[in-house]
Structures are given as structure tokens and as C-alpha cells.
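Researcher: Sequence of DNA-binding GntR family transcriptional regulator follows. Predict its structure.
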Amino acid sequence: MTEVPDFDPSPDSYVYAGLADHVAARIASGDLPSGAKLPGERELAETYGVAVGTARRATKELRDRELVKTLPGKGTFVV
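Model: Prediction complete. C-alpha cells:
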């Protein structure tokens, strides 16, 4: 497993994209293995110090990249 650097969004890009990139790097490194449940949007926002809307947009970006799948009422999981 490789270590993923701390989250430090670039001022030249959108914060949601940086957050999605960071979570994607954690998935690629094995820190978040297949089947792992991601924190809820509010917890994710609190952990990363971003707005809930930013965490929601990052989660959507991860779904669009087909890295995670959201099951309504259950949560978001790494595929």
C-alpha cells in the first residue's frame, strides 16, 4: 500500500474535484478497499473541512468515475 498525502486542494481547481481525487487515491492505494463504506456526506464534509454540497458533488464525481456506488438508504460503497 502506498501512502496518500493529506488532502490539500489546489487553488487552481474546484474543491470537489480535489476531494474526489483524494478519495480516488485512497481507493487506488487500498486504504479504501472494494466494498468499503464511505462516510456519509455530512461526516465526509466534516472530516475534510468542506461544505456538505462539496462533499455531495465529490461523491457524485466518484460515482461518475464508477469508483463508488450509492445504494439509497444504505450508503456509498467502493466498487
